[in-house]
Amino acid sequence: MKKVYVFLIFVIFGIGIIMFLLFGLDSVRREKYETVLVVSDDTTWIYQNKGWLHVSSADQYNELNWQKYHVFENNKSIGSYDLWHDDKWYIFDDNKNAIMANGTWFGYKSNYEIEVENFSKEEISEDGYVISALNDKGLPLDNKYTTSYKSSVDIDKDGIIEDFYVISNVFASGDHPKKTFSFVFMVKDNQIYYLYDDVREYKAYSGCVPDIIAFLDADDDQVDELVVSCGQYSNLGRIDMLYNFDGEKFKILISNQ
Ligand SMILES: [Ca+2]
Ligand SMILES: [Ca+2]
Q1: Which carries the bigger pLDDT value, residue 220 or residue 32?
Q2: What is the pTM of this model?
Q3: Which ligand approaches the C-alpha of residue 47 most closely?
Q4: Distance from the alpha carbon of residue 126 to the mean position of ligand 2, in angstroms
Q5: Residue 41 — pLDDT band, cuts 50, 70, 90?
Q6: Which of 118, 116, 29 lies closest to 70, judged by CA?
Q7: What is the largest CA-CA distance in the chain?
Q8: CB 86 within 8 A of CB 44
Q9: 19: which DSSP letter?
Q10: Taking ligand 1, which is a single-atom ion, which protein residues have CB atoms under 5 Å away?
Q11: Which residues share a beta bridge with 114?
């Protein structure tokens, strides 16, 4: 009888170890994950303990200054640089020469491997999905776009590419439209999934023009997150948002607003 108990204890102990190795170890490992993600001049997010934080205080910035970050400009890696935050982020090489980033840029540093997708922006004009998005929202089809492009990335790594559309008529020159709109949506299995979706009556200087800054798997769960930045009029600044896709819809994990 005693032998049976000893055997059972061993079995339960063994199962416990196997369960820990299968699930617990991964969870312990993930809790130690830490990433700092910098989006252009002034948005800084930290990922730790499976959650995202927005950095705003000088003390927090001091802890992040003069460290090496992987820096990407217009979606291309430009190398590893020191970042320093004063009134905004500045980029420096090893000899403390300032590096000027043209256009949108982002940087990250992390204690684990992060995969950043290479993607291109393909001009779109007539496209069935754009037409159906405009129809869905009751918008005319003859628009002067300020941005309209498509990017293709396999965000959930299932071997099938998803298409991401960005279209906007905000800040178009010439006669103003009755309604302004900005959309970012994904097409997966012929279905449209909206990330950003704004339609409003025309008002001067109102609205923003979205842009996809990055596709990267920031939390190492084999699904890419997206950084989308929406440019408002002149000195109103940008709205930066980090999205994830849970298989059914997109959700904003964190934003600078
Ligand atoms: Ca896919
Ligand atoms: Ca992810």
Answers
A1: 220
A2: 0.86
A3: 2
A4: 32
A5: confident
A6: 116
A7: 91
A8: no
A9: H
A10: 154, 156, 158, 160
A11: none
What is the rounded distance in angstroms from the CA atom of residue 184 to the CA atom of residue 127? 14
Question: Ligand 1 centre and the CA of 31: distance in Å?
Answer: 27
CB-proximal residues (5 Å) to ion ligand 2: 217, 219, 221, 223
Q: How far is the CA of 43 from the centre of ligand 1 (A)?
A: 28
Question: Ligand 1 centroid to 62 CA: how many Å?
Answer: 39
**DSSP string for 212-231:** EEEEE-TTSSSS-EEEEEEE
The residues that bridge with 191 in the sheet, in sequence order, are 188
Residues in the chain, total: 257
> What type of residue sits at position 42?
D
Assigned token pair, 18: 């196997």
What tokens were used for 150? 């498509």
* Distance between Cα 56 and ligand 2 center (Å): 24
For the record, the structure tokens of 153 come out as 């990335």
CA angle 116, 106, 49 (to 5 degrees): 70
Contact 206, 199 (CB under 8 A): no
pLDDT of residue 175: 87
Task: Tell me how far apart the alpha carbons of residues 204 and 80 are, in angstroms, rounded to a whole number.
Answer: 41
CA–CA gap between residue 135 and residue 129 (Å, rounded): 10
Residue with tokens 């840029």: 105
Q: Give the mean pLDDT of 49-55.
A: 94
Q: How far is the CA of 236 from the centre of ligand 2 (A)?
A: 30
DSSP for residue 56:
-
Decide: 254 and 52 in contact? Cβ < 8 Å: yes
